[in-house]
Each structure stands twice: as structure tokens, then as C-alpha cells.
Amino acid sequence: MRYGFDIGGTKIEMAAFDDRLNQVFCQRVNTPTADYQQFLDCVKTLVAQADMTLHTRGSIGIGLPGVTDPISHKQLSVNVPCLSGHCLGDDLANTLDRPVTIENDCRCFALSEASTEQTRAHDIVFGVIIGTGAGGGLVLNRHLYKGKNGLAGEWGHTPISAQLVQRYDLPLFACSCGLSGCFERYVSGRGLMALSQHFHHQATSVPDLLTHYRQGCPLAQRLIAMYIDILASALASLQLMLDVDAFVFGGGLSNIAEIYQLLPQAMRGWLFAHSQPAAILPPVYGDSSGVRGAALLDG
Ligand SMILES: [Zn+2]
Question: How many angstroms does the Cα of residue 180 sit away from the middle of ligand 1?
Fold first, then answer.
């Protein structure tokens, strides 16, 4: 039995999966964000309830936003402040008396979506999350590729190309990661709105901008075409580096139907003439991929 945890700033979702990945148990509680011991006790209670209900001792995988220092094992988590500075994995392993694997939530999403029927024939799957931020994860033959610093898949913080800057006369937006011109600042929800404001569209939100686009507003049409081209440039770079078989989208902006219609053609403009763009796929499990991917972590 595998237990997965999806830990967010407001809720903890915990689910248990049997060997065929059927979900057999699920709990959702508020996240204790202020007190570290309270957080550990909360996870301990959830695991004890699952163990008792299912008469087993499940393996534990945990997905949460933020990073774990690969040397000190200390956690840095903006959403759940009480975790920062603590060796969360070690402390949970002691508390729960079993191994615990912790991974960034975007990587859990990628692992889950690379383990579905629609990606069965694809060996190299890249999970692309575009929501409030832009993250991702690389999965090779259904195994998460982590990298030396556990950062593999952080495409959102690579810089946009000079060609994009020139083509659209783009400003170099500063990024919260300390770099500037990161893709995240253009292709996340906030990024799309920053573009919209920069080019003087009156849209107040992404859905509002899409409404204008679908009603034929010329400026909204230019903005969405620009957005798709920027996204296409990022994904084409990943494809040139990794020769990806499939990109699976997640996050709030993955609900935009036009992405799946327009992106393959837009990517062709950034690839060699003879190469075919990778498959561009919507998520199968979507928001539920957090717990599912966490449960699939194999240490
Ligand atoms: Zn950045």
C-alpha cells in the first residue's frame, strides 16, 4: 500500500493507493502552518488512521511546494512557514517509524501524469505546470529524474530568448527567484496578466482576457498569440534538449482549450523543419495528481 500526501498552504490531502493504483482511502484536513510539532502530529494522526483502517503499514511519499537542501536536508517552504529550516524528511521518518520521501509538488504531478494510460507509449514525459507559477518535472521511463540539486524540470526559471524580446519588444520582468526574464514571468497566470497590462489591455483577469479573445478583440488576439508563441519557445527548447515524447499540462492555465489547439503549430516555428512537436496533452488526474504522484515516489 502506498500513501501519498499533497501538502498545500491551506489543506493537506492524504490518499492511500493499492498495488494497482486504485485510491482506497482519502482524508483532507487543514494544514497547521504556524507550529512545526503540530504539523508533525497532524501527519502522524493521518498515517495512524490509514494504517488502522487498512490494516497495513503504507509507504510514505510527500509532495509540497518549495525545495529541500540536498546537503543539509533542511526545507524551504513559503506556503507552510513552520517547515522552513527543519529537516522535515528525517523528522517525519522518526515520527512515523518508516522511510519518507519528499518531493516538490510539480515533480509529483509530472510523475503521476507520466504513469497513465495516455502516456503509456511515451518514454520521455515532461510535466508542465502553468498556474500562479510555472514549474515542471521530467520523467524518464516512469521514473522521476531529479538531478544533482533536485531541480530538474525547473524550466520556468530559464530565460526567454533574445528572439522573443525582439519580436514582441518585451520588457525583462524581474523574477522572485532573483533572476530576470524568467519564462515564469510571462507564461504563468500572473505573467499573462503582466503582458496584458504592459500592452495596455483592460482585462482584469485571465478568464476576462480569454473572453475578449474569443469575442474577437484584436489586442486580446495579439496577446494570446504572443503568449502561445512564448510558451511554444520554452517547450521547443526543452524538446531540442531532451527530445521529449509528450508534454502533459497542469495548473490553472492548463484548462485553456486553445493551448492544445495552437501550441503544436506554434512549436514548429521553433524546431528544426523536419522534427515533429511532442504530443501536447491535457492532464488525466489534474489536481488529484499531487497525492497520486507523491504515492508513486520511490525514494
Ligand atoms: Zn525566476
Answer: 6
